[in-house]
Amino acid sequence: MMESLALLGHGFSVALTPANLLFVLIGVVLGQVIGLLPGIGPAAGMALLLPITFGMPPESAIIMLAGIMYGGMYGGTLTSVLINVPGEAASVMTAVDGHQLARQGRAGTALSIAAIGSFLAGMAAVVAVVFLTPVLAAFALRFNAPEYFLIAALGITATASIGSSSVVKSLLVATFGLTIALIGTDPLLGTSRLTFGSVDLLEGIDFLPVAIGIFGIAEVLASIENRDEMKPMKTRLRDLWLTSTDWMECRVAILRGGLIGFFVGLMPGAGPTIASLLAYVTEKRYSRHPERFGKGALDGVAAAEAANNSAVHGALIPMLALGIPGSASTAVLLAGLVLQGVRPGPMLMAEQPDLVWGLIASMFIGNIILLVLNLPLAPLFASLLRIRYDYLAPGIVVLSLVGAFGTTLSMFTVGIALMFGVIGYIMIKLDLPRPPLVLALVLAPLMETSLRQSLMLSEGSLSIFFERPLSIVLLVAVIFTLVMPLVRLLLRLTRGSIPAR
Amino acid sequence: VKLANKLDRVTAIVMFVFFTVLLLLSWPLGYWDEFAPSSGFAPIWVAVFGMVLAALLLFERVPDTHVTEAFDRAGLSRVLQAGGGILAFVLLTPFVGMILAGFLLMLGLLLIVLRRPLLASLFTSLISITLVYGIFVAWLNVALPKGFLGF
Description:
The complex is a heterodimer.
Chain A: H1 2-15, H2 18-36, H3 42-49, H4 58-83, H5 92-103, H6 107-140, H7 145-162, H8 167-182, E1 184-185, E2 192-193, H9 207-225, H10 244-266, H11 271-286, H12 298-314, H13 316-322, H14 328-339, H15 348-351, H16 353-374, H17 378-384, H18 393-408, H19 411-429, H20 435-457, H21 469-495
Antiparallel strand pairs in A: 1-2
Chain B: H1 6-26, H2 41-59, H3 73-96, H4 98-113, H5 118-139
């Protein structure tokens, strides 16, 4: 515990350098803006801005990208409350009651409790990150190839099982992502696979143009199709002041939402959207005024916002300790680490203390900046909602294409980004979830190499996955996440209880 | 046994064909060498898994939590125009340079696809492309393709 505090102190010495402070500020402001713009979420924003981190030191790059990730959670609230359109998916539950409060003339109160709830839950989650990440990383040093395969597989199956309305669709998309990752040179034998003789494909399809296309270009194409004009409601600085009744009503909701969010964030695949939904439902169950939910419950807003920010920070624990991303945003952050030449995994904390502890310390600073941005400066950010998205969309497209070119200095990569932009747009139209594709793409190399290494060690015997208690536990978890939804599907098919669309 | 909705059926069939092709392409890579999995090991498993999932999707009937919006003609036309514009950007870049192609793409999207006023479109495109130039060329020193105008 004392060692963690000492390392955190070192982290502050990294995060408090003028350059890194500037990048925290840039990251959280960008996150706030990206979060409040409907149509582009934190994962997309991070993917679009990854190319501009090439020239930066790794600490600054990751601090900025993480700032976008948690800043997006704060920014999404403004759009949800003022125009009833969630800026990003995790703010959906905030829109339910937040906009009702705005219609009752209490937009400022809703924004204020959302900011305070996010701040308190975020800070508590970062404290948990400080103490839990080293413990998990030390434990993960016991992992061998079978455990790595199983935990990577769990990342994908849990995403499919928890984070989507259709498990089959999620797994199908993840399998498509695995296929994309298989293109290129075999990592163990060096033979070319599925390259069709193309020299450009020998090094495989990079994560970045896929993420830029799937999130950035696809979102813009979808927004060009549906051009909804936004009419934000007005909010004033003096409306942001909370009364003691408001605070008393929400303090337990913030605590409950923060705790739920943190534990949901730890689980692979669940993420902030599930966290805010679960926190909202739980709060409604335990609230003294459940009848207010859906009509303007301040505690509902507090719980949902505390949960989504807490979940985002909690999700960093498996990413930093194991090198396993649990959501699209942490997958992009992991890709950012790889692009900076940093090898993720349990050794990351020992090998890159400046980066890991600088990042953790920066999250304390970033949350404080975000609280300031979201309380006195909320009306200023709200005014950004008056800019028509039409004027931003073409700029996002060009930034995406130039960014994709910047990754390899090849027009082939721009073509890949464009192709995945079209694929992403079709996925939106077909209601196919996109995060499993990106997660599978990131996890595929670890999955394949650890599976093949395991089978080489066991000379082809699958018994290697049953030899150690740890691998048995992980195997059971993978099977559970696969089987349970399939059982539900079979039950649905046999009972015929779900009407076809 | 009832089938899934139309869009899901199309997805299932397309993905089944895709994974069947993957299986056929992966087979020659070999499944197992003497002591270890061969290069085709992972692709073959991925293809088989994908085919099973595609077959399952054909019969899956999910709760209607997300209503898929139909393709409306005007919206689809805008998307196709935007897609065409991006394709033109890719084809034009080697000749006119990435900065000019980007400027033309933005202007085209604003004026033709999104029907914005001329002055506002010009101003927005100019500001945006200057920002892109500032970040990628001036700050990060990325060698973007240059055209006949020298930038």
